[in-house]
Amino acid sequence: MSAAIKPMITLEEICTEAEKIRLSNPNLGDTIVSDIYQNAEMIAGPAVSKNSTDSRSWDYKLDDVLTSRLFGYPIMFALLSVIFWITIAGANVPSQMIADTLFAFQDQLLIWFELAGAPTWLTGIVVLGMFRGLAWVIAVMLPPMAIFFPLFTLLEDLGYLPRVAFNLDNMFKKCRACGKQILTMCMGFGCNAAGVVSCRIIDSPRERLIAVLTNNFVPCNGRFPTLIAIATIFMGGMVVSELQTAVASLVVTSLVVLGIFVTFAVSWALSHTLLKGEASSMVLELPPYRKPQLGAIFYRSLIDRTIFVLKRAIIMAAPAGAITWMLANIYIGEISIIGYLAAWLQPFAYAIGLDGFILLAFILGLPANEIVMPILLMCYLSAGQMMEFGTLEELRDILINNNWTWLTAVCTMLFCLLHWPCTTALLSAYKETGSKKWTFLTFLIPTVIAFIVCFIVAQSARLLNLV
Amino acid sequence: MNTALTTIPLSTLGIGSVCQIVSLNLQGLLRRRILDLGMVPGTPVQCIRKSPAGDPVAYMVRDTLIALRSEDASQIHVNPM
Amino acid sequence: MSNSTIEEHQNFLSEHFGITTTPGQFTVALAGNPNVGKSTVFNALTGLHQHTGNWPGKTVDNAQGSFTYLDRSFLMIDLPGTYSILAHTVEEQVARDFICFGKPDATLVVLDATCLERNLNLALQVMEITPKIIVCVNLIDEAEKKNIKIDISALQKDLGVPVVATAARNGKGLGTLRQKLYEMSTGLCTPAPRQINYSSEVENAIQQLLPKVSRLIGSNLNPRWVALRLLDGDQAFINSISQYLDFDLHPTRLQEVAV
Q1: pLDDT the model gives residue A19
Q2: Chains linked to B by 3 or more Cβ pairs within 8 Å
Q3: Per the database record, which ranges form the Ferrous iron transporter FeoA-like domain (chain B) (predicted)?
Q4: Strand C163-165 to strand C133-138: parallel, antiparallel, or no bridges (unpaired)?
Q5: What dihedral angle (degrees, nearest 10) is formed by the CA atoms of A257, A263, A264, A270?
């Protein structure tokens, strides 16, 4: 038997021998890497000829401005504001056109259903629930997304985002986190689920977890339309119409900046409590600026992002619309189910500056943030008299008829910015962390913060008799 | 090599200055990362720019701009040129 | 390959790498440093025929795309963008394991023409694992703008493998790239990749291990490269090699096999 084994060599034997050699020469690993680079130099040397590095200056000059002590931060803020301004200014008209078309079609649908002799409940669920939910989601979401995504992809393609990480890394270091976290936050603007997945770029497991747990504090595209609509109606509405868009975009930008500050605060707190640890190292490549490829940007942002996100929203919106319509139209005694739920939530909701319907809409919107606003409108419209919503002015009337004040608007925006992530993002967090505990905290931390912040704002405003 | 006396930490290099890497006093993943980027002993490095807060700092290594935090750069010993 | 070995390889790919090939389809691995336009090359070659997911059991993106050239279909696997494949991170491990154990019919390494030296590091590492490599010098237009000239034929001669200059964003050089991939996969092209010259201390250490390594692995892998990984004390590699090649680290099982 032993004779048969002898000629065999096991991997373990060779490993032991390798180990011996390595111990007698501890720099072997480094030497291997150095040697490969030396070969690379020997090959590249004769094959590459460089003339003056003059043409580099364009890159240098751009970096001189974009990462300068004086302009670095203001430019980031300005770029963000400009993007929102273009989005808000550009989305208004197409939004209305889409709404007009879809609601005209809704009227047509109603006629057809009536001609076909469909029962009221069927018409309600299909047309007033599913179709109307869909129409709102498309009208409210599609135009801002179709403008925001290409603009943001443009910055990405230019190579600006690594500069943002370069500029902000120091703050992340102070929070004992990684500067690349801002890149995951940028992904979060598109979709928090994608943002959570992108946390893979962070090497340290501790810092990666911090990035996962805080990604939700950047508002995703599902929340932008809500923020934009409320900001335009209430904040923009306070000034003359020429300034409306500018004020609204400033409000949205400030909210994003607030979200970034909350990210810093929570990252800092986590680094000092649950995820204790020192900042680890960071190696960040700053690739040269590249001329963006407009075709690819258009394709990537429209097909990959806009259509993808819209598809998800639509899949969620149709059933959510149907369910909401049913909840709003099934009466127990004098009050609809939605009325009961909202009344039950009212005390909590009032304490944080919202009302029962708003909180209910956020809860029902857990599968996708995009459907919060449509659900809310459906609740309001079914509770009060029927009304067609097409434009922002009409939306404003609906909200004011339902006792919205500037405080309701502020608290709704804050809650929207800070509250729990949608189920898709939570699912991604579970897949990435592989832990129920961290997934639960991904839900809990934003939720608690949203309640606390809105509570403080609402109570202070009321104490100071501001409303 | 009698370089130990004249080496300085990479983090003390002024903007625009050029140096040559002598040794890396780093461990683990960071050491491998730095080596993989071609920052092996003998490699020339130029300090290019500081971020607005003064840290991290971007260095040009083999035609690539690499940003490092000061804590990490201070563990890389270089010979000014 | 006989039909049964092809089938075996297909099962192996699907089990370990989550890759499903159609019969007769070639697999092409796509490697490259970050920020070299690797995904532009990937998109340009595969267009809309893409599918993304994760590597089995890992939180690392796995993008696959297919294209047809002449009469053959190719499945391109976009490996994570890494500076090295010495496997210090999960991404590098995934890339290395696929090139090494997935045995792609060709491996395309995308290099940035504006910093060729650093990028050659990765190409040389890949060349140690597989001879079936095609080097794509991308961003050649950017290099021209920066007054950097690259002698492609000299590079090709020196490396001993096909080298193609591309500007993937403008579609320049992609036709040649497809052709070279075809030639490499069908065996029309016989590459003779350059061996890395190591300093004497490394070379001596390799020579000490080489005979035993050759006996252990046979012709499965490049024994020089395996010896280097073992000398590097690369635990991830030792795990991979025992996982993929069914080498057992525990001699007891080997005894049973031997009996």
Answers
A1: 84
A2: A, C
A3: 8-80
A4: parallel
A5: 170
Number of domains in chain B: 1
Name the residue among A222, A225, A217, A156 with its Cα closest to residue A191: A222
**Partner-chain residue, chosen from C88, C118, C121, that has the shortest CB–CB distance to B32:** C88
Nearest by CB to residue C83, choosing from B29, B37, B63, is: B37
B39 in a structural domain: yes
Average pLDDT over residues A46-53: 78
Q: Is the predicted pLDDT of residue B58 greater than 70, yes or no?
A: yes
Spatial CB neighbours of C46, under 8 Å, sequence gap ≥ 6 = C65, C66, C67, C76
Give me the CATH topology for the region C3-186.
Rossmann fold (3.40.50)
Looking at every residue in chain A, the average pLDDT score rounds to 86
Task: Count the Cβ atoms, other than its own, within 10 Å of residue B50.
Answer: 18
| Residues B78, B61 contacting (CB under 8 angstroms) | no
Could you tell me the CATH number of the domain that includes residue B28?
Answer: 2.30.30.90
Predicted confidence band at A201 (pLDDT cuts at 50, 70, 90)? confident
| C41 Cα to chain A: minimum distance (Å) | 12
Which residues constitute the domain of residue B17?
8-80
Tell me the nearest-neighbour CA distance from B63 into chain C, angstroms: 5
The answer to whether C220 and C198 are in contact (CB under 8 A) is: no
Residues of chain C with CATH 3.40.50.300: 3-186
Helices and strands of chain B, counted as H and E runs? 2, 6
Shortest Cα distance from C250 to chain A (angstroms)? 8
Are C174 and C44 in contact by the 8 Å Cβ rule? The answer is yes
What is the phi-psi region of residue C130: left when phi exceeds 0, alpha when psi lies from -120 to 50, beta otherwise?
beta
Residues contacting A447, CB < 8 A, separation 6+: A419, A420
Q: Measuring CA to CA, how many Å separate C94 from each of A204, A262, C235, C236, C257?
A: 18, 35, 14, 10, 30
Give the amino acid at A311: K
**Would you say residue B2 lies in a domain?**
no
**Residue C238 parent element (H or E):** helix C235-244
CA B10 to chain CA centroid, nearest Å: 4
Specify burial of residue B31 (Cβ count, 10 A radius: 0-12, 13-18, 19+): buried
Which helix (H) or strand (E) element contains residue A398? Answer: helix A392-401
Tens-place pLDDT, residues A342-396: 999 999 999 999 999 999 999 998 988 888 888 888 888 775 544 555 567 778 8
- Tell which residue, A85, A224, A218, has the closest CA to residue A141: A224
Interchain CB distance below 8 Å, C233 and A18: yes
Peptide bond into B56 cis (omega under 30): yes
Amino acid at residue number C252: T
Other C-beta atoms closer than 10 Å to the C-beta of B14 total: 7
